Amino acid sequence: MKNAHPMQTLPDALRPGGTSVIRLRVTDDMVRKFSELTGDRSPLHVESEFARRSIYRGEVVHGMLTVAFIGALDMLDAANRNCRLTSLNAQFTSPVYAGDTFVLTGVVITVDHAASSASIEYTVENTRTRIVVCKGEAVVNYRGGANDAATQTAGRPFSLPDEPLEPMDVRFERISKGDPDSILFSIKDGSIAALKSILSEGIEGALESSTGFLSDLLCVLLFSTSAGMRIPGRRATFLEFTASVRGEIRLDTAYKLNGMVSHVSRAGRIIKKTVSITVGGTDASLLDGKVAVIVNPDHAKMPDMRQLKDDAMDLGIKGKVVVVTGASRGIGETTARLFALHGAKVAVNYFRGETDAKRIVDDITSSGGEALAIGADVSDAGQVREMIRKTVERFSRVDILVNNAVRDFKPTPFLKLDWDDLQKDMDVTLKGAFNCCKEVIPLMLSSGGGRIINVSTIAVETPPPNQSKYVCSKSALVGLTRSLAVEFASNNIQVNCVVPNFVETDLVGHIPEVYRKKIADDTPLRRNSTATDVAKAVIFLASSYSSFTTGQKVMVTGGAPPYL
């Protein structure tokens, strides 16, 4: 015979669209009590040093603690009716920290009077950030009869696990489908009272709820304990769960929470577990569900002093073979010398400056270094091929190429330019770099890598008047830099450029002193750059200190724009 008065078992507030709102605050004391109650002492929640090194930068509140507050929704009227939990699920979308305040909103979705049940969607929103930290759905059932609320009995234990738990530490790579774990527990009247105390502290008021509802809820809360204390343990971040109550959960009864890995996602470092609760040694499940967990990797370990000494004290230039084009004066001359000071073997390229190139080589060799002067017009592919052949013949290989050769910096109004004028600059700056790269890159590929540094100019970004041919050729060099960097990065060939502003060399000797002084005064460091400033930047890009840098510009501008 059907129940003639099903409405009598449901609270009046349970009607579709009905809403209940709770304002709550999570404290450190609540977190401590929750950890003691559930046995979930995952270091992410209770160990400040561990949590500080996580992606959350501090101790995170158990996600299940916010879920537990559904037991305080007044629409359920759980204290005056025999309300039980039928199913519950949640997705955790944002971390919660002690001291945060929240709004828990429950909305009735469906009501089944015949079955005396209702489904409620809930959200937990951070009141400061307006971010929903948790959301899900609960289904409850009303069975009629007296309220079975329990009170705490003095001296009775209130923690759920039978024995204190230590968090496991299972690395993701060692987790396999089918891996089992378990927790033995029982629910005491003190357990119910402890949960009520925690919830009452969060909502700043007395909580009334039936023992039946809270005992079901306590079992579900242990899903988090399964993830944080068993597989995977201390590396776990809880993502979501679903739970279905199949039978009646009773106080003072020996239960076993069984977990088993059902899925392993290598791409996302996510595992899923099936979870069930059985009585004693039986296989009959009273409650089952699923959990999803991210298995976090080890904390990043920074190198110690010994490791830094091995990796960073040596610039990695000693013994390397370097070709510097346009090295008979200015930036190229200084760069060649600085490489030699760091123990590199240097091919000093020149076009017309044979005497100067030999002088530079003599200076290097007299100081204990190794160098070779090689004449070549870099715009001529045949001469470049011969230059690289001589370098390899002398030093066996080429590790570093510095494309520094340039034609001139003489200003010419655009309307007085012929294409041949611009072509001549392009031939030296762009075609010269192209020819050198064509010869050197195959050598670098065969030896396992190398460095190419192109010398550009600030004029690419802030062109001075009457310098269109110079700016065009240097702009093209930047394009070559970026293209080669992308194409050969996987071959361990790094391509970058140094971008100086006004450098005091022979190239700008025709510029009046008053104008050079004005440029210096307009520079934040109140001076013009020197060839040594630029050479140091080249050394940086050729060294182990730039091991993760390619396709980039290193600005040598004394603080002047452009800013990258």
Layout of helices and strands, plus pairs?
Blueprint: E1 19-25, H1 28-38, H2 43-46, H3 48-52, H4 63-67, E2 83-92, E3 101-112, E4 117-126, E5 132-142, E6 180-185, H5 189-203, H6 211-229, E7 236-245, E8 255-265, E9 270-279, E10 285-295, H7 305-312, E11 321-324, H8 330-341, E12 345-350, H9 354-366, E13 370-375, H10 381-395, E14 400-403, H11 419-447, E15 450-455, H12 468-488, E16 493-500, H13 513-522, H14 531-542, E17 553-556
Parallel strand pairs: 11-12, 11-14, 12-13, 14-15, 15-16, 16-17
Antiparallel strand pairs: 1-3, 2-5, 2-7, 3-4, 4-5, 6-8, 7-10, 8-9, 9-10
Helix pairs in contact: 1-5, 5-6, 8-9, 8-14, 10-11, 11-12
Q: Number of helix segments?
A: 14
Global outline: elongated
CATH H-level homologous superfamily name of the largest domain = Hotdog Thioesterase
Mean pLDDT: 90
Query: What's the structural domain tally?
Result: 2
Gyration radius over CA: 37 Å
Largest sheet: 10 strands, antiparallel
CATH fold call of the largest domain: Thiol Ester Dehydrase, Chain A
- The CATH class designation of the largest domain is Alpha Beta
| Fraction in beta strands | 15-25%
Q: Classify the helix fraction into a percent range.
A: 25-40%
Task: Indicate the structural class.
Answer: alpha/beta
**Reported CATH architecture of the largest domain:** Roll
- Unreliable stretches covering 5 or more consecutive residues: 1-8, 147-157
Short structural description:
With 564 residues, the protein is an alpha/beta fold. It has 14 helices and 17 strands. Helices cover 32% and strands 24% of the residues.
